[in-house]
Design goal:
It is a single chain. This protein has 154 residues and is an alpha+beta fold. The chain is built from 3 helices and 8 strands, in the order αββαβαβββββ. It has a 5-stranded antiparallel beta sheet. β6 and β7 form a beta hairpin. α1 crosses α2. The longest helix has 18 residues. The protein is globular, with a radius of gyration of 17 Å. It starts with a helix and ends in a 6-residue tail after the last strand.
Length: 154
């Protein structure tokens, strides 16, 4: 059975693509009786407020008809930003060489939070280089949250 996030991605990816954008990811959180649905969109040309508005309008219409949430929710549409979250293996591959922060669902070697160089992907595992001597293979299913750490030139 697909998770709520997977069902939402299946509904919304075609809507976002039809508007010339890529569905970067979805965050779905419940707060008591209401929920927050955050949709991240991206494109090669960047994302404008107009893009977010168009996607919000179309996504809202689809969600109203399909009603996959079934309760009160708030819809937000945003670009991934400089500290973009990473959700899928292909996104980790695209950002190989970047500094990332990763939070695991369960501790590995006694810690859940990791920070290091995203060295790439091997199979269904993310390769994280913590220092010059230590590399870790993190199964994609064990990653709760991952974000690129923005690097600014001085």
């Amino acid at each position: 059975m697909a998770s709520k996030r997977e069902r939402l991605e299946g509904l919304l990816a075609p809507v976002v693509a039809s508007l010339g954008c890529e569905l970067w990811g979805i965050e779905y959180q419940t707060h008591g009786r209401s929920a927050l649905l955050r949709i991240f969109i991206d494109s090669e040309d960047g994302i404008s407020v107009d893009d977010c508005e168009k996607v919000s309008r179309q996504a809202s219409a689809v969600l109203d008809v399909e009603d996959p949430i079934g309760s009160k929710y708030t819809l937000e549409v945003s670009s991934p930003g400089l500290d973009r979250p990473l959700y899928k293996l292909d996104q980790f591959e695209r950002f190989a060489g970047a500094q990332v922060e990763v939070r695991l669902r369960m501790p590995l070697d006694g810690q859940r939070k990791w920070r290091g160089l995203l060295a790439g992907v091997e199979g269904d595992e993310v390769v994280l280089r913590v220092d010059s001597e230590n590399e870790y293979l993190l199964p994609i299913d064990s990653i709760e949250k991952a974000n690129v750490i923005p690097q600014f030139k001085k």
